[in-house]
Write a structure and sequence with these properties.
With about 425 residues, this protein is mostly helical. Helices cover about 75% and strands about 0% of the residues. It folds into 3 domains: about 45 residues; about 140 residues, no CATH class; about 180 residues, Methane Monooxygenase Hydroxylase, Chain G, domain 1.
Length: about 425
């Protein structure tokens, strides 16, 4: 909103009252409240951390020191790096390469039809293909609907406007308004942007006395371009989500595993928001969101290409849960003594890590029931988290226990989703 952020100091008093309330409850020495008070203490710690971060917004003294202020740069540097990135995409299993082939084929066929059928002006066919043809079927279908509805709306509104404003001056004003609205909506509402650009086209052609003559060509070229775009997505190296769902799930688990490894490393070496840690965290959340998008896209595809819908949604829910458990550890990370990590945490961490490795193998096409059974027994340390006096260790063991509880069902779902 362009205004300087002013932090409300009342939240400090509220956190103070919450702290005093927790102290009062602990003084009651009620055994039934023990585990609940532990969770409330963790929540209080989270809120205090957020309060500290919010209160430091806009203060130069609060800038992050050292490596915590370094940002990752994923852009290729130099011509060689750019060429290498392009070359790495030149393979049939690359979504970008497949989309490029589809788009090039559709545009070539569209241009051929323009020449054969002598369509005038036929460039609307090519423009429609370019805008409607998207990397996925669901995105293409959405663009198609918006393009057709926007074109129809523009034509239906434009015809009476041509009668109401026959003079050149009035139409010039409407052209300016339509152009402004097109640029205003082109990135947020493609259907409205299409309607306004259609109005602009009608008024432009009407300046040459061809306003009504261009209505049917505009509609026909749009429909032909949409048909070619959908045909390209459906028949030229189609990327049905159900066929690559396994790979997305496997990569999601891999990202979760990398994130957990970074968190555990910080319990050994101390809390630092390094580039590697921030990248691992971002990749884990991005892949979890990508898995959700892939499942939702699958539901918009033709029924014969949908599979394991219920199992996929359940796997998504468990993936969300797994990521939330890891994020809890990330929020409370603190350096622990080496003997604590080795004696109480390493075994539990390795159990979870082995399970996640096996999940990747299952989803990638492998299958080893013996290994799953071998790591399926939880450590005694995981069950003893309530008796642990150190609150940080108790939190770790508790989260490991929650992670372990979702693993058997995730293995079962992976078997079903993989078709075994």
């Amino acid at each position: 909103m362009g205004r300087e952020y002013l932090h409300d100091s009342e939240s400090v008093a509220v956190l103070d009252e919450l702290q005093q309330s927790l102290e009062y409850l602990k003084q009651q020495n009620n055994p039934q409240w023990q585990s609940l008070l532990v969770q409330l203490e963790y929540l209080l710690k989270n809120l205090a951390t957020v309060e500290l971060q919010m209160s430091s917004v806009g203060h130069p003294s609060s800038e992050m020191p050292g490596e915590e202020s370094i940002l990752a740069d994923s852009d290729p540097q130099g011509i060689k790096a750019h060429l290498l990135r392009i070359w790495n995409e030149c393979r049939l299993d690359s979504p970008l390469f497949r989309h490029g082939l589809r788009l090039a084929t559709a545009l070539t066929v569209g241009y051929g039809l323009i020449v054969i059928l002598n369509l005038q002006p036929g460039y609307w066919v090519l423009l429609t293909i370019l805008f409607v043809c998207q990397p996925s079927y669901s995105a293409t279908r959405q663009k198609l609907t918006q393009r057709v509805l926007g074109t129809l709306a523009g034509l239906l509104v434009g015809i009476p406007l041509l009668y109401l404003f026959p003079g050149q001056e009035g139409q010039l004003v409407l052209m300016v308004i339509s152009g402004i609205l097109f640029f205003a909506f082109r990135t947020v509402r493609y259907d409205l942007a299409t309607a306004f650009i259609t109005l602009l086209v009608l008024f432009c052609f009407n300046q040459q006395g061809m306003g009504f003559a261009v209505i049917m060509p505009r509609l026909g070229d749009t429909l032909l371009g949409c048909l070619l775009a959908v045909a390209a997505v459906a028949f030229i190296l189609p990327d049905w989500e159900s066929k690559r769902l396994n790979r997305i799930m496997a990569l999601t688990i891999s990202r979760h595993r990398e994130y957990l490894a970074q968190v555990m490393e910080q319990y050994q070496n101390g809390k630092r928001d390094t580039v590697d840690y921030r990248l691992a965290r971002r990749h884990a959340h991005n892949m979890d969101a990508q898995l959700y998008a892939a499942i939702m896209n699958m539901l918009t595809e033709p029924g014969r290409y949908q599979r394991a819908k219920d199992e996929s949604f359940r796997f998504l829910a468990l993936s969300h849960a797994l990521l939330s458990y890891i994020s809890t550890l990330g929020a409370h990370r603190i350096r622990l003594a080496d003997h604590i990590v080795e004696d109480k945490l390493q075994e539990s961490y390795l159990v979870i890590d082995n399970h996640m490795q096996l999940l990747e193998t299952q989803l990638s096409g492998g299958q080893d029931k013996d290994k799953i059974e071998m790591v399926s027994s939880p450590s005694a340390a995981i069950h003893g988290w309530l008796e642990e006096e150190n609150p940080e260790v108790r939190l770790l063991l508790q989260q490991f226990q929650l992670m372990f509880k979702v693993m058997p069902e995730m293995h079962t779902l992976a078997q079903v989703i993989s078709g075994r």
